[in-house]
């Protein structure tokens, strides 16, 4: 193949997917501004809206065949702002400021682990499968923080003294999960543009109805179930499957 036939690298940036990525980063920045003003629920909603934009930019890039290395790196930087720094700042202004330097350390652990998670993802995408993420994805970590803040608004007054400690534990625990080796389902193999059984649509409608009915409760419940699912799969289901495979191989060798 001569030089004329070789595909030239794209020197510019595709506009549509990167516009969505920029909007996602702006919403993360806006969340930090609102958190500093004490508008915690608006700040949380901005992060959730950013998560929606983050999900759309990749889909749009793939559907329009406008994916690029520039977009991948830009998306990671936007994710760090929207789901690493913004939730950490929100947690600090909401509850962690009560702990002084310990609260600063907990918020920084969350943000730093998010950055490490993104860096590891960027260098390992070529050697890991698409079915699982290694470590909790940073958008899921950010959404877990936000949904917990919404959920905590329902706590009775007797738990007001417990809420700061729960926020402190959540910041550290979610940060550690992001850099852990726990496997989490990516759902990338579940193509929403292809035909699926009707029961899949019914299940989606049921889950959506629960969120719409009691959003503060089921938003956090879904995030907690996603986190628990990765832990159960990694530490219970996967070892059992490996032991069965080893026994099967040993039986065949006999």
Task: Tell me about this structure.
- The structure is a single chain.
- With 254 residues, this protein is mostly helical.
- The protein has one domain: Four Helix Bundle (Hemerythrin (Met), subunit A) (Up-down Bundle).
- It is 72% helix and 2% strand.
- It has helices at 15-36, 40-63, 69-94, 101-124, 138-152, 163-178, 198-213, 215-253; strands at 132-134, 183-185.
- Helix 3 runs antiparallel to helix 4 (101-124), helix 3 (69-94) runs parallel beside helix 5 and helix 5 crosses helix 8 (215-253).
Percentage of helical residues? over 70%
Shape-level CATH architecture = Up-down Bundle
Query: Count of helices?
Result: 8
Contiguous uncertain segments of 5+ residues: 1-7
Q: What is the number of beta strands? A: 2
Q: Largest sheet, if any? A: 2 strands, antiparallel
Write the CATH fold name.
Four Helix Bundle (Hemerythrin (Met), subunit A)
